[in-house]
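[scheduler] slot 2 assigned
[scheduler] job type: sequence-to-structure, two independent chains
[scheduler] chain ordering preserved from manifest
[runner] begin chain α
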Amino acid sequence: MKTSVTKAAALCAAVIMTAGLARAQEVSAELIAKAKQEGKVVYYTDLIVDQIVRPLVAGFEAKYGVKVEYARGDSQANLLKLMGEQKAGSMQADVFATTSGLKPLLEVNAVMKTQLEGAKALPPEFKDPNGYWVAANYYVMTPAVNTDLVPEKDRPKTYEDLLDKKWADRIVWKQNDTSGGPGFIGHVLSTMGEEKGMAYLRKLREQRIKSVGASARAVLDQVIAGEYPLVLQIFNHHAALSAKKGAPSQWLKLEPVMVQTELHAITAAAPHPNAAKLFLEYMISKEGQLIFQKADYFPTRSDVPASMPELAPATGGFKAAVMSPDDIARDYEKWAALYIQLFR
């Protein structure tokens, strides 16, 4: 379970700086024709609609003339929806995005195995060797503060700083998922080790962290609005983008930060399987990855760098630890149980 910081830093460096990957082949004319015949693709996503989903959909529809119908929900909400449709034998989704929860879908054979031409341009860390998923982007997970409420001198610099008594009843996080309490717990145990990590979490419990049933973005917005001074486990680019617009928001470089991938997969019973495959090909093509870049997400193709290099570990000069999909699949239930045991 433990991921070395050195390995993580090397991975992030490879994502952004490695050059000379073999050019992926173009998608076949046959696939395009079949996708056009199907006419549309249904996409369940946890990505932010205005920031990335709409421009991605617009680019795909303009290029191929295939309509995209999308529904936005958090990873866990999407998982429940997909599991319900699978159980009912009435799958509506063709493609879904998630940061966690893939294992239950794999266990009930709800995910299609497929080989994508565009995956040839991705580093191995961002594609499943068995063909069940690809990562279209990755995230850097950190705490953040409201800069109006927390002066520079008081902002935590280390994880130990979060244990200071002055933060009691003043910290918030999302109540589920890897972008919330369970993910933070997993990161602590992965980087500190079981014994030291558990000791740290028992001390952190004394801070009486507030749990909110909302997306990580929405919880950050509450911090920006002044409802809480400090939030754990948010996406650092969200805080940076808000700060650019004048919001009192700053992400905290507590090392090692957590890096996580956004997985995309096709449902096994996809009503429009060819359109689904073409949509994934577009996401991981250079054209699609440039849309992620323009939206200030971290692209997974090595030939498409981050738009804000200071936010990425390799170019921002800070240490990171990658939470792999295998780590999450194996240990998420344990982290969720600890979250309930210690913090609810």
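[runner] end chain α
[runner] begin chain β
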Amino acid sequence: MKHKKIFLLGFIIVFFVIAIIVVFAMINSQMLHEKNIDLYFLNPASNTLEPERRKIASGDETDMLRSALTELKAGPKNTTMLVKAIPDEVKILKCRFVKDENNSGTVYVDLSEDYNDLKESQEILLRGSVVWSLTDFDFVDNIIITINGEPVKGSNNEELGALNRENFVVNPVISPDKTEMKEVTLYFSDESAAWLCPEKINIEVVQSQSIENKIVEQLIAGPRDDNHYATVPPETKIKNIKTEDSICYVDLSAEFVTKHNGGTAAEMLTIYSIVNSLTELDNVKKVQFLIEGQKEESFKGHLDFSKPFERNEAIIMKD
């Protein structure tokens, strides 16, 4: 009996030793199949690119590069300080890795034509994010960026060619955006929550931010007149705003819906405070709302969100 107990104890000890060895082997294997690199995201407060350490699953070179680009597009983990430098509308069409006879590695990154709609400062930060992130791989020496197959060009209209850490500083000096003061008309709720009241204010508009974006930003911030009341939940975040063919596409975060108190009258004031404010601009005739990039059927089950809204004069308080 005693020998059986000793044998059983020995078996248990051997089992646990083997289990520990297997666990450590699995951990080491996982570490060997992961690579730590720095991905570069934009700090809006300083308008500079800052690194964020990430684990990229190992594979062949192209797989790792594509994973890194996917992470760059998805955005930073630290969302309180950093944002992505590649806008949502710019798509990564292709990624190709090539090694030459001198063992120098070049990554070819092809972007969608939406890149051409960016401001110059946005283009520079996007290129910096891609170049510095991908060259953190030890097998990458150069990056060549193309736009739908065409070579990317700089402000002097010359092809940029191969970019690397020697010819592209991580935080280039970017000329300050031109600013100008513009008077805009914003619409907020009256005290009874029955009418929209116009409020004229002067806002500073920078070259890299559309006036449509600035108007919605000010609506979220709320009125300056003590007799007026906010219509948009303050938790709302602007995802993207662009105007095409006289339709302003306003893409807002989910909080625009989830943080709204609801009620048909309140919902009408919220929607038309935005619509009427934006249609004060000569280039905007209609407003199409999107939530987290998606077109919704309705706003909290009442207003039809599937089609653009036109200006509503009837809801504006008359003098």
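[runner] end chain β
[qc] chain β: Residues 22-33 have pLDDT under 50 and may be disordered.
[scheduler] slot 2 released
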